[in-house]
Amino acid sequence: MLTPKCRTNEYKTLKVTVQADNVLRSSTPPVLNEVNMLKHLGSATLNQDEADKIALKHLRLAEEILEIDNPITGGRHYCIVSQPQGNSVRVLQEEFPGGILPRLIVKAIAHQLLIGLNWLHACAHVVHTDILPQNILISIDTDSIGLKEVEERESKNPSVPIITKDTNGTVSGVVYKSRPTRFEVAGPPVLTDFGQMRFVGADGEFNDWWMPDLYRAPEILLQLPWSCPVDMWSVGIMILELMEGRNLFDPMDHEHRQYVYPLAMAQYIAYLGPPSPKLMGKSPILSKYFDGDGEYIGEAPIPKTSLEDFATTISCEKEKKLFLRFIRRMLTWDPDERATTNEIFTDPWLALPPEEMPGCFGVYGEPEAGTGS
């Protein structure tokens, strides 16, 4: 929700949190977890240096966290105050045919996202676990005319509130639909939504089933300990999605909206090859999918495909080779072999100049001589 801050003549966003009934029994509900993580991240920004300031531009932190009363339910809500941002990368995808972003935009998003992610891992000691196009916003100029227009439209034609009720028919809240906004794609990407974030404790690892179905890292699939490397897996999967307009994995029974574990295993093997003998020895479930000789015995057939087949938007052989090497550094069965943010940041594909990337401008075409890029 956008709101003007009258005393300073600034715009701020207010995220008023609502805790769903089905997660109230959770040990740490997402709403409370996000508030706790934002407080932790705020503390981690103290005594920041110049490098930290650059990284923090790519993270949507809280400027203030308030608690407000709900006059309808008698409960209380957290209200998170932060800088206004533009649309998400998911919305940006909708502006392009097939949801395929120009490669230069994908590179810029990846490069800058890695800066913020490195700070989360190295300085704040947290793992995000939910890196998706919809959780990355494009920053905007907070003095832009677009924010003023949103305020004026709301003043002239107020949004119609929607009254929500719980399962007993009791009024539980009031929801105001967001207004569509359109801002120029000019600012850096900003990672947001910290409700699924984990603090890396003394042992630095977790063992539970986690992450979105289409982005789940293989160590979780194999029921092995996981930590910060799962974020690098998500970055690799997201880059492929932005480049191709479709997900690499689809281990779903769409009719029943269920995750199909054997199907997931078969798809992972198709794109990554079989897990190493080391992982087979560690994972408690791989014996269901491989016999003693390492031969696959799973019920779902392994698709006849590869990353080379999936990546169709790069026509230049040299660039495609560099790109697939870049992706394979992040998409590994073994998290110990996965590139870190520091290691991937200087990857040759990210450093490749536009003149060596034919078609990288997408629907915009190549710049004319002398006009720059």
Question: Could you explain how this protein is built, in words?
Answer:
The protein has 373 residues and is an alpha+beta fold. It has one domain: Transferase(Phosphotransferase), domain 1, CATH 1.10.510.10. It has 13 helices and twelve strands. A four-stranded antiparallel beta sheet has the order 1-2-4-3. A two-stranded antiparallel sheet has the order 5-10. β7 and β8 form a beta hairpin. The longest helix is centred in the first third of the chain and has 20 residues. The chain is globular. The protein starts with a strand and ends in a 22-residue tail after the last helix.
State the secondary-structure class.
alpha+beta
> How are strands sequenced across the largest beta sheet?
1-2-4-3
CATH superfamily: Transferase(Phosphotransferase) domain 1
CATH-derived topology: Transferase(Phosphotransferase), domain 1
What is the H-and-E element order?
EEHHEEHHEEHEEEEHHEEHHHHHH
Low-confidence stretches: 21-26, 367-373
User: What's the level 1 CATH class?
Assistant: Mainly Alpha
Work out the strand percent: 5-15%
Give the domain tally. Answer: 1
Largest sheet composition: 4 strands, antiparallel
GO cellular component, one term: nucleus
Keywords: ATP-binding, Kinase, Nucleotide-binding, Serine/threonine-protein kinase, Transferase
Pfam families: Pkinase
GO molecular function: ATP binding; protein serine/threonine kinase activity
